[in-house]
Amino acid sequence: EQHMSWDGQRLVKYKGFWFLVMIFRPMLFARKNFKAKDTDVIISTMSKSGTTWLKALTFSIANRDRFTIDQSPLLACNPHTVVPFLEYNLYWEQENPDLEDIPCPRIFATHMPFDFLPDSVHENGSRIIYIGRNPLDQFVSQRHFLLENKIGKEADHPLGVDEAFDMFCRGIHSWGPFWEHMHGYWNAHSENPRKVLFLKYEDLKEDITSQVKKIAEFMGFPFSLEEAKQGLIDQISGLCSFESLRNLAANKTGNNLNGLVKNSSFFRKGKVGDWTNYLTPAMAERVRKLMESKFEGSGLIFKI
Ligand code: A3P
Predict the structure, then answer these.
(1) Which GO terms describe its molecular function (predicted)?
(2) What is the pLDDT along the chain (304 residues), one digit of tens a residue?
(3) Which of 55, 53, 41 is nearest to 104 (CA)?
């Protein structure tokens, strides 16, 4: 089954999820050929949910003995250069890239739904960190992002916000349905919290210090008392904050993800609740009802 997205991308439905046609082959290559190591960390997200932030944080946590904050590669390169996506970067051009020599712990990112992850990720000791975000802010963020970047578009006349929102609610968007994407990782986390950490964008916004500690513990690199006393947690949180990253020259210019995306477009507002500037209370009500029915009984909730 195929469908055009609201902004003119060709989508294909496979096993209940909608994928950008152009990403389908790299995703299948990654599923078939990626061999996870036990020490790997996989950042999984629905797009526009805090991927860039989580990449910067996990990279900084894992490499804090290799680089001091003022030598961090994040000062010179966009987080998406430092932590690549399996499907948008590594398996984009190559069916089976050689990833053996990347220093451990290797960190990779993906937007794949949980059931689609490569078998080796499911089977070995690697860990998965997922970050979810409330659907209304995710939709607004995604809309801005897609209007700004031409990612495989075949039509030049994007649909208006009402039609786009309706398609979002029906799950017809890249990596959608949103609900099933979140739910899949939430269930996996509930079943095996040592394998899957489930974070929320809003929680990171509310208390970054406790979330950074939690991420470090989950990754197997808890902060020592000494490190905490030296202020390392604050330094990492500060370096990876929206304001800090957005103002770096490396994030103001250039492109990423095979030239498809402007680096600057990964940093728009970085706020919780920006949806109120674009969407109506009736739209919010529709999403509230959808969340109730889709997440029913699971304990998963996003405040809106
Ligand atoms: P907005 O469009 O609402 O501003 P992703 O990284 O998954 O593509 O998500 C992008 C969203 O995260 C954008 O949201 C972006 O501004 C926000 N973002 C990027 N870096 C961030 C950071 N360091 N802290 C908080 N939000 C960040």
Answers:
(1) sulfotransferase activity
(2) 999 999 999 999 999 999 999 999 999 999 999 999 999 999 999 999 999 999 999 999 999 999 999 999 999 999 999 999 999 999 998 999 999 999 999 999 999 999 999 999 999 999 999 999 999 999 999 999 999 998 888 888 899 999 999 999 999 999 999 999 999 999 999 999 999 999 999 999 999 999 999 999 999 999 999 999 999 999 999 999 999 999 999 999 999 998 889 999 999 999 999 999 999 999 999 999 999 999 999 999 999 9
(3) 41
Identify the residues whose C-beta falls under 6 Å from ligand 1: 45, 47-53, 137, 141, 144, 240-242, 245, 266-270, 274
What ipTM describes this predicted complex? Answer: 1.00
Q: Which tokens go with 260? A: 């498809």
Q: What is the amino acid identity at position 204?
A: L
Residue 244: closest CA among 234, 230, 229, 254: 234
In the annotation, is 111 catalytic? yes
Q: What is the 3-state secondary structure (H, E, C) of 66-129?
A: CCCHHHCHHHCCCHHHHCCEHHHHHHHHCCCCCCCCCCCCCEEEECCCHHHCCHHHHHCCCEEE
- Ligand 1 pocket mutation, candidates 45, 48, 199, criterion most atoms within 8 A of CB: 48
Contacts of 287 (CB under 8 A, 6+ apart): 135, 136, 169, 304
3-state secondary structure 228-295: HHCCHHHHHHHHCCHHHHHCCHHHHCCEECCCCEEHHHHCCCCCCCHHHHCCCHHHHHHHHHHHHHHC
Rounded CA separation 239/56 (Å)? 9
Q: What is the pTM of this model?
A: 0.98
Q: How far apart are CA 242 and CA 86, in angstroms?
A: 24
What does DSSP say about strands 127-132 and 196-200: parallel, antiparallel, or unpaired? parallel
